[in-house]
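Give me the fold.
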Amino acid sequence: MAEEGKKKEIKLKFLYIGNDSVFWNKFQERVMVSYEDKKPVFEKLDDKDGFNPLKVFHMIYHNDFSVVFLDFSLHEEKILELAHLLRNETTTKLVSTVGIHDRLTETEVISRALLAGLRLNYYKGEEIDAMIFQVIHYWKPSFAKPPQFSTADVEEPSILIQDLRIVSFDTEAFGIETNSPIEDGDIVTIRRAMSSKVLKQGFIVRGVRDFDLLHNSRYAALISPMLEPEEDTGEEEEAVDIDEESNPIEEEKRVITPEEIEEFLKQWTPKNLRVVTADEYFKIGIIIIDSTLDFITNEEFSYNHLPYRISFQGSLHSELFQITRNRPNLIVFSYDPEINDYNVLKNIVSKIKASEDYQPHIVVFNSTKVNEELCSFIDYSQVLSDGGPLNWELVLKMASVLNEKASDPPEGIHFVHGENPGNVLQMEMDIKIMRVNENELFFEAFNNIPMYTVFRLQTPVPMLLTVVPVNESHEFNSTPNVYRGLINLVADEMTQKLRVQIRDYMFQEKAAAKEADKEEQERKKEEYQKKKEEAAKAAEAKKAEEAAKASEEEVKEIVQGDPDQKD
């Protein structure tokens, strides 16, 4: 038995969910080279006996894994479901959950992985040293051993691209969810990737909120296109006579009609976007808080077919953002004196009361308080107390009643299926690259970027960039507006190209330094020459002055020595 008060040993524990033994064996070998002293543990799970995302999620929840690899070549849809489960739950969210992709993985699969919340993604290949560092660093920075790479200082403008999820659209705007802060009135550049080209358009942001979100995002907003009233053909117009009484400056410009905006949005709406029917529309959300989550392992348990948004939580974050962001209509709370006690329930009620127009129903299982006592203790009336274990049938009955009473989807708004492969737009952000190596890139941006946000970057090579904290000891830590991003999802051939580009940057840096040194030497030479000339001039002036003085003294002596010159 471990001694009381002894610190729990932190283990480096990896889980790979996939069938690619070549990748997994190579990964283990390379980890052992640098981390043998940490005594890493490796486990593998494939689909030989079937693959149930709920049961795998439950297994991961009850184990202290450091890193979990999700290989998308195993079973794309089930892997995505597992990713959503892991990235939505408070405890498993802290695990370094990593997407592994084949080189020919389609772009839309990468987008779905990003929107599922996977913050690190990699192609299978030979270049895995940076990957090993990053997946461990994400889990626990103090454990990670940074690889040594050549680093170049750069000052080069570039553009970050972030995937946005389309959640709805109407004749005036797209409803989107994003992880980047945006504000009412912002003008943002939005991209839509096509098979042969990329469309770009300015959109105005309105109706920003950080609550009542449909997915695992931070913000929701409406974006409407900024259309020009008239196209400039570039042709010069013929001069015409102007009536002296008319004032063309005061004439109003042609206003964009609603029909034109509607037609534009039709052109921009992805062709394969799946619109949710009235029967498929999720009118209510449910959050289930249970410290064991054992109920999801029952053979008869299923949730995918249900017309509700359901979130499973072992416990809640201290800020209770799961309540405020998603505003579930039904909160299922399994009482636990050690983790989910009545004080947690009180805090939940406080959050509810601090939210405008929000009064969800709460059902408490394993309760030691009868209904009246519980209502009084938490100061909330819409609560049902049940002394038995979590009863899924009762939950479904309550959900059904709430669903019947809930409002239908707003008229004229088309909602998009959450897992639609085509529900992605992209937003651009101007940056300046400051420093880069194969592992990380530092950049300057004047937007407020939350940590662990993921962007696409096309230069110096196509990559994903995952924003992480700058080390406290790093020189950029005290530099305002400079962010650090871990470079991931770079193919082997692109890694080689990145190395070449870094060498070019370093050559340019050395050349610039050499040129600056040369200019400095020239400046010093000119300064020396100038000082030399000034010294020579000063010496000549002094010599002339001394000669004049000597001549004057000589005249004086002559005058003083001549008796005829005396008084």
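The first strand starts at residue 13 and ends at 17.
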